[in-house]
Amino acid sequence: MAANFKNPVIRWIDHRLPVFSYLHHEANEYPTPKNLSYWWNFGSLAGFMLLVMIVSGIFLAMQYTPHVDHAFNSVERIMRDVNYGWLLRYIHMNGASMFFIVVYIHIFRGLYYGSYKAPRELLWQIGVVILLLMMATAFMGYVLPWGQMSFWGATVITNLFSAIPWVGDSIVTLLWGGFSVDNPTLNRFFSLHYLLPFVILGVVMLHVVALHRFGSNNPIGIDTKGPQDTIPFHPYYTVKDLFGLGVFLIFYAYWVFYAPVTLGDPVNFVPANPLSTPEHIVPEWYFLPFYAILRSIPDKLMGVIAMFAAIAVLFILPWLDRSPVRSGAYRPAFKLFFWMLVFDCAILTICGKHAPDWIWSPFSFSIAPDTGQAGISIISMGQLATTYYFAYFLVILPLLSIFEKTKPVPLSISRPVLGAGGAHASIAQAPQQMEKF
């Protein structure tokens, strides 16, 4: 049903192309669960960061030169000679980190509250596709400054595909555009880095369509039972999102204005030199857990498979966790193992950051080069953390689905929100008790 707009121009356009009616329904009167917490802000924050990255990237591309002889100097020119070029670059450079922070929190929120469960399986899988596209885009963007870490990071990561039997070498040659990382590689990566954000934008639209098909999940993890469980998205959640955006912008501004290069690698401020290998090649921080998984397995092919499997396992997650209770708030055992997973991912990040010959000393609680003192090697820590990561998804969640005793779940969203917390029922009892209403 078309909305009755007061503006005659909008009404005339909407009668012939109902785009305003669609936006009015999807972004204004769209019924949303009334109990969403601030953890649900991170979806809109991710959309905001995508727009920031696209806009800042377009302006940077106007001044960037994708050639191995000029790329590094063109970035320096942006920083020194282009009006507010330093600001554009710091917004874009730190924006990548902010984007991944927001998306990782968004993913862990979905993991905790069971947002991957039926009927939202496809919604979850589209989100995983967005994560993969983000990773590919960020990796190619990191190569563009053409510093030492850009060049050698590209060399190491693209060489991983050579481990694939039969077709690996052909894939690497295709990525390189030759027989080493050189000008054709830089041109390929620049072209794809510019294109993929628009692909991400298209997939995000699919993500939103899939989200609105069954509505948002909520902290209780039960479906809305009617109008009494929902409120319009505007103005209630637009105000909440704007407040969250304000807090996030303060955090973002700190990194842009006070610590703009802290999250980067200082080696990348040296021009790329194919004849000088950095002492320790590491990717950006948001790739470190997957890099640690890659390094924890001695065999190159199995390491590559494990690294990609760390993402692939998320695709099948809806069928690994078969518990009828969505929200981790009502699953005591699940909650324990979930926070162990969060800690495990932090350990993987630390392991990916440090050189393989470093050790962690449990007596001094420090990580340092191996000097013969007692401790656990970074590789051993990475192997233990990798084992738990896969065990969580492939072993623990299926077993919890069978043996876990969950807490009683509220019959509806409205009752705990309005303070009638006494009305609870188990999932098995809910259908029979709901028949009484």
* Strand content bin: under 5%
Total helical segments: 17
Can you identify the CATH class of the domain at 37-281? Mainly Alpha
Number of strands: 7
CATH architecture of the domain at 37-281: Up-down Bundle
At the fourth level of CATH, the homologous superfamily of the domain at 37-281 is Cytochrome Bc1 Complex, Chain C
Spatially, the strands of the biggest sheet line up as: 4-3-5
In which range does the helix fraction lie?
Answer: 55-70%
* Cα-to-Cα separation, first versus last residue: 30 Å
Radius of gyration: 24 Å
Structural class, judged by helices and strands? Answer: mainly alpha
Topology order in helix (H) and strand (E) letters = HHEHHHHHHHEHHHHHEEEHEHEH
What number is the mean pLDDT?
A: 91
Transmembrane segments: 38-65, 86-107, 122-144, 156-179, 191-211, 242-261, 301-320, 332-355, 375-400
Protein name: Cytochrome b
InterPro entries: Cyt_b/b6_C, Cyt_b/b6_C_sf, Cyt_b/b6_N, Cytb/b6-like_sf, Cytochrome_b, Cytochrome_b_C_euk/bac, Cytochrome_b_N_euk/bac, Di-haem_cyt_TM
Subcellular location: Membrane
